[in-house]
TrEMBL record:
GO-annotated biological processes: DNA integration; DNA recombination; proteolysis
Source species, domain of life: Eukaryota
Residues of the Integrase catalytic domain: 248-411
Protein name in the entry: Integrase catalytic domain-containing protein
InterPro entries: DNA/RNA_pol_sf (IPR043502), Integrase_cat-core (IPR001584), Integrase_H2C2 (IPR041588), Retrovirus_Pol_polyprotein (IPR050951), RNaseH-like_sf (IPR012337), RNaseH_sf (IPR036397), RT_RNaseH (IPR041373), SH3_Tf2-1 (IPR056924)
Keywords: Aspartyl protease, DNA integration, DNA recombination, DNA-binding, DNA-directed DNA polymerase, Endonuclease, Hydrolase, Magnesium, Metal-binding, Nuclease, Nucleotidyltransferase, Protease, RNA-directed DNA polymerase, Transferase
Gene Ontology terms for molecular function: aspartic-type endopeptidase activity; DNA binding; DNA-directed DNA polymerase activity; endonuclease activity; metal ion binding; RNA-directed DNA polymerase activity
The keyword DNA-binding is annotated on this UniProt entry: yes
UniProt KW Aminoacyl-tRNA synthetase keyword: no
Length: 595
């Protein structure tokens, strides 16, 4: 039996009286790649004994290997656990290990290595003949004919043209390219779309061409030609100012009727197995619940927790803003909310700005938990109840009050302010409780809610004004054509098999209808009917491209700005839209994080 090993695999051949009985080989496993040469060669022997056990067990055999030290494996004193296990296996067989030079062990060596085909060098002879100059000369003759001269619009420059190089017309050593015959487009196409130029920008293309060619209004025509290139629109990065005005969610009318929720995952696992926090925030009062759970908890347990901690204390909410977590998209969760009459407002995939309040609360919660662990030690779940108390009893700048005070109408009793909150006092500066009637309490609570809504409105308006200073408004008409941006997020499905070299945009697609201020219905091909999207839009006429626009046959809804309540067609592809105009900047998506 001849055995050999390489850094790619194991190979062995079984022979008797000079005739081959069997061949065997396999690729190295992931952990075997790290083996030493000694262990690999010994592993090849063990592999052969195991696979041909029915031939070798109880029979005397000789094992040939090109690793000389294996001859003394039975006498070796210091063995690791793997080698000891293999030596015990070798003792079950009547075998001897002999050294065989690697030059002679060619069969087993070939079996242990990957086959490589020999590289072939192909000779190529190529002769390039350019007929462009000859064609331009002929076009110049035609353009100077009286019936064609008027369309050239030389603007008096024909007097400066001089004949060089066999009747060709030049202006200051630059060949004049006439409009007649369409040779300007031929020159620009060669300078922009060929393998020798590969889509340069308009400025680079003009600086290259102006040294050799001349025609009136040359720079503007080159800029127009480049702006109509569909390939450039699909692959070029845009650096222009983002567009799309910020879309703010509706301010709730009452406490805990509109909420947001999210999960903090991958926390250190506690003694009780908790590793996740369910964060639920009221969008009006900013009061929150931090519920410790396990990441592996079933939806039945989560629904019971939701009913116990939210519905029992605050009633059934009107709407819930969340991401597209598998828990929130499950049938159990959707059936529960449908039966309760709660609308699920899910964001587009991989866009946390939509539910910014939860994200901002999560940042604060994580910082508070870090501080508690540093100052007080122990596991995070021990501190979580008091962290929730501290958060709800702390001043919130957007409502200019603590969430606890906004929710219950008075400050919370704590060791710090126990003298300020008495048994007969609802709030500082108010009359005793015994003198307040029911209607007065209702009126006071209603006035506080109105104040909170006004403060939230001022905060969101201020935020919107700051965001809109760095953006442009969008305006689109039915019939405009747009390109669809492929999301750069890791792990999402891309179009084609080019990986990182996929186009940034696909399309163009026609806008069929305007659904709302920032959402549009597009005519998409069949494979994109399940697309859920955010858009970067700009209108363009179908005549603007240098190549025809393909027709499409499906419809999907695409949103150009992150808005909390937009529910789009099924699917998990994340997109942005961008439309093209001849000389207008490309727009980009607006961002939104609630405070």
């Amino acid at each position: 039996m001849y055995c050999d090993a390489s850094n790619q695999g194991l190979g062995c051949v079984l022979m008797q009286r000079g005739r081959v009985i069997s061949y065997a080989s396999r690729q190295l496993k992931t952990h075997e790649v790290n083996y030493t040469t000694h262990d690999l060669e010994l592993g090849a022997v063990v592999f052969a004994l195991k696979i041909w056990r029915h031939y070798l067990y109880g029979t005397k055999s000789i094992i040939f290997t090109d690793h000389k030290s294996l001859q003394h494996i039975f006498d070796q004193k210091e063995l690791n656990m793997r080698q000891r296990r293999w030596v015990e296996l070798l003792n079950d067989y009547e075998c001897e290990i002999h050294y065989h030079p690697s030059k002679a062990n060619v069969v087993a060596d070939a079996l242990s290595r990957k086959e490589y085909t020999g590289r072939r060098v192909k000779s190529l002879t190529m002769t390039i003949h350019s007929h462009l100059s000859t064609q331009i000369k002929a076009a110049q003759m035609e353009a100077l004919q009286p019936e064609n001269a008027a369309s050239e619009s030389l603007r008096g420059m024909e007097k400066n043209l001089e004949v060089k190089g066999g009747r060709a017309y030049y202006l200051m050593d630059r060949i004049w390219t006439p409009k007649h015959g369409g040779f300007r487009n031929v020159v620009m196409t060669e300078a922009h779309n060929s393998r020798y130029s590969v889509h340069p920008g308009s400025d680079k293309m003009y600086l290259d061409l102006k040294k050799l060619y001349w025609w009136p209004n040359m720079k503007a025509e080159i800029a127009t030609f480049v702006s109509k290139c569909l390939t450039c629109a699909k692959v070029k990065v845009e650096y222009q100012k983002p567009s799309g005005l910020l879309q703010q969610p509706e301010i709730p009318e009452w406490k805990w009727e509109r909420i947001t929720m999210d999960f903090i995952t991958k926390l250190p696992k506690t003694m009780s197995g908790l590793d996740t926090i369910w964060v639920i925030v009221d969008r009006l009062t900013k009061s929150s619940h931090f519920l410790p759970i396990k990441e592996t908890d079933k939806m039945e347990k989560l629904t019971r927790t939701y009913l116990r901690e939210v519905v029992r204390l605050h009633g059934v909410p009107i709407s819930i803003i969340s991401d597209r977590d598998s828990r929130f998209t499950s049938r159990i969760w959707q059936s529960l909310q449908n039966s309760l009459g709660t609308r699920l407002d899910m964001s587009t995939a991989y866009h946390p700005q939509t539910y910014g309040k939860s994200e901002r609360t999560i940042q604060t919660l994580e910082d508070m938990l870090r501080a508690c662990v540093i100052d007080f030690g122990k596991a995070w779940d021990i501190h979580l109840p008091l962290v929730e108390f501290s958060y709800n009893n702390s001043y919130h700048i957007s409502i200019k009050a603590a969430p606890f005070g906004a929710l219950y109408g008075r400050k919370c009793r704590s060791p710090l302010c126990w003298t300020e909150v008495g048994d007969t006092q609802l709030a500082k500066g108010r009359v005793p409780e015994s003198t307040l009637t029911g209607p007065e309490i209702i009126r006071e609570t209603t006035e506080k809610i109105v104040q909170i809504r006004e403060r939230l409105k001022a905060s969101t308006d201020r935020q919107k004004s700051y965001a809109d200073q760095r953006r442009k408004p969008l305006g689109f008409q039915v019939g405009d054509h747009v390109l669809l941006k492929v999301s750069p997020w890791k792990g999402l499905i891309r179009f084609g098999k080019h990986g990182k070299l996929n186009p940034r945009y696909i399309g163009p697609f026609e806008i069929l209808a305007r659904i709302g201020p920032v959402d549009y219905k597009l005519n998409l091909p069949r494979e994109l009917t399940r697309a859920r999207a955010r858009a970067r839009l700009k209108p363009v006429s179908s005549r603007a491209f240098n190549e025809p626009i393909p027709s499409s046959s499906r419809v999907a809804l695409l949103v150009c700005n992150p808005n909390y309540h937009y529910q789009l067609p099924n699917g998990d592809l994340e997109f942005g839209l961008r439309a093209l105009w001849n000389d207008v900047d490309v727009l980009s998506i607006a961002q939104y994080i609630d405070d």
